[in-house]
Each structure stands twice: as C-alpha cells, then as structure tokens.
Amino acid sequence: MLLVYAFFQGYILFYSHNLLVIPLFLFTFCLIALPGLLFVAAFSLACPIIMPLPVYQFLFTGYWLWGNLFLKQQILPTLSRSILTPSGVRIAGGFFGTDIDLLGHTSTFEAIASLGLLLCIAILVLLTLWGALRWQQARQ
User: Fold this and answer.
1) Under 8 Å CB-to-CB from 119, ≥6 apart: which residues?
2) Where exactly are the transmembrane stretches of this chain (predicted)?
C-alpha cells in the first residue's frame, strides 16, 4: 500500500513541481491508511494464536471480500459502509471532503470516530494477544 501511495505521490510531485507534496503524502498516509493497516495487522497477529492458520486465512479472505467487494449492494450489511472499514474511505471523506457516490458525505465526527475506533480496537487486540501469550507462557 505504501508503494501505491508513493507512486501517486511521485506522479503528483512530477506534475506539480512542489516539494510540499512529500510531507502532505506522509501525513495523509498516516491519517488515512495507517489506522486500517494497524487494525488488520493486529488481527493478523492475534487470530492465528487462537485458531489454526488455514482457518484464519479462509476467514480473512471472506472478511476482505465481504468488506470491500460488496460496496455497491445494499442488501447485506458490510463493514465497507460503516466506520469500521479499514480502507480509510470514511476518514478521507470526513477530513478531506472526498465524496464517494456510494457512501455519500462523511462528517468530520464520523472520520474521528472511524480513526479512533480502528486504533482502539487494534490496541485492544494487541493487549489481549500480549495477555494471552503471557498466560500461555505461565502455563508451561
């Protein structure tokens, strides 16, 4: 994801000839993409501890498809339309005014809620993982 962001940053830098693109790129990457990456990474570290890895890989693939590919349909509830979407679309919409036709306008409050919720859940999952690993080690 960082490489894709860097590619677009290089493209904008090439055509704008403005070096302020670089700190803006870093800021937007940390604000939009990093909370979702931390959210997914926390579960990717913790879940294989409590379930077999192939089961987690299967469930993660289903989660990713459910949360990202079913954006256009409105029959099934998905994470892609909620503040829990790790894609950062709600954060980008709330802070920078990007408007996706399918999601509509996102308020700044929704962006803050999405950012905070993604980070808090990631921290809670990592703390739970740390406690579970300490408990497993103490049992041995």
Assistant:
1) 35, 38, 39
2) 20-46, 53-71, 111-133
